[in-house]
Amino acid sequence: MGSCALVAASAAPAAAHGGGGGGGGSRYVALGDSYTSGPLIPRQVDANCARSDHNYPSIVAGRLRTATFKDVSCGGATTEHMWKAQGTNGPQLDAVGRNSDIVTVQIGGNDIGFGSIIGTCAQLSAQDPTGNPCQRHYGASGVDQLTVAIARTGPKVARVLQAVHDRAPHARILVVGYPDLLPDDGSGCAPSVPFATQDFPYLRDTGKRLNLMLRLVARWNHAEYVDTYGPTIGHDMCKPPAERWIEPLQPTSPAAPAHPNAKGEAAMAGAVWQRLTHGRGGR
């Protein structure tokens, strides 16, 4: 937790800006990675970026009845892809202009290596199914490397927010956190989610550290934070198919492994909508 506070403190506060409201006629731009784009969720509208027209930005845009809507989220995106093309998807920041009213940003998971972390922890679980081989692996140097990766990602996210402010001085900028992937009580569900028993709480806490960093960086860069973790507790990848909003490593609903399904995207849309329509009172 302390490292995240240092990350936030290192991000220079941006100049205060006004912002568009949450009503109809807004010009909305969505930036982000695969948790935003919605891979494999019908209907896929961009094969290069695995983007769905039922992802949370599309749902929010429909509720807002936007004047314009640009969703440039892309599976596999890192903060670098805000400035760099990703296949046929141009630099995501190119979609943000001076007349943009609302910009949502959900980024950072790939910067810390979401995919490789899941693969590594699943592979290591066979060595010590009831222990914490993944935590020991990332802490072998005496310092938890995932905590370090989160701290190093903070300034990258801050730079993205500063760039959005520069391009859209009057926009409301919402930093969207990541949903609850694993049981919030620290319990496990191997073998359906193949992590060692004591690595479930470790990975849960890593997700919470990532979200804390995003919350603090948003605060220090005059953006609003959208909590999607709280609203998705109880619907993680360990739950039965009818109850889960995050698919396990072998999905049973159309979605990428360890990603939100259509219900998960709808839940994140609800959290964004709640933030837009209930003002800017808290960060």
UniProtKB/TrEMBL annotation:
<keyword id="KW-0378">Hydrolase</keyword>
<dbReference type="Pfam" id="PF13472">
    <property type="entry name" value="Lipase_GDSL_2"/>
</dbReference>
<feature type="domain" description="SGNH hydrolase-type esterase">
    <location>
        <begin position="30"/>
        <end position="266"/>
    </location>
</feature>
<dbReference type="GO" id="GO:0004806">
    <property type="term" value="F:triacylglycerol lipase activity"/>
</dbReference>
<feature type="disulfide bond">
    <location>
        <begin position="49"/>
        <end position="74"/>
    </location>
</feature>
<protein>
    <submittedName>
        <fullName>SGNH/GDSL hydrolase family protein</fullName>
    </submittedName>
</protein>
<dbReference type="InterPro" id="IPR036514">
    <property type="entry name" value="SGNH_hydro_sf"/>
</dbReference>
<feature type="active site">
    <location>
        <position position="259"/>
    </location>
</feature>
<feature type="disulfide bond">
    <location>
        <begin position="121"/>
        <end position="134"/>
    </location>
</feature>
<dbReference type="InterPro" id="IPR037460">
    <property type="entry name" value="SEST-like"/>
</dbReference>
<keyword id="KW-1015">Disulfide bond</keyword>
<dbReference type="InterPro" id="IPR013830">
    <property type="entry name" value="SGNH_hydro"/>
</dbReference>
<feature type="active site" description="Nucleophile">
    <location>
        <position position="34"/>
    </location>
</feature>
<dbReference type="GO" id="GO:0019433">
    <property type="term" value="P:triglyceride catabolic process"/>
</dbReference>
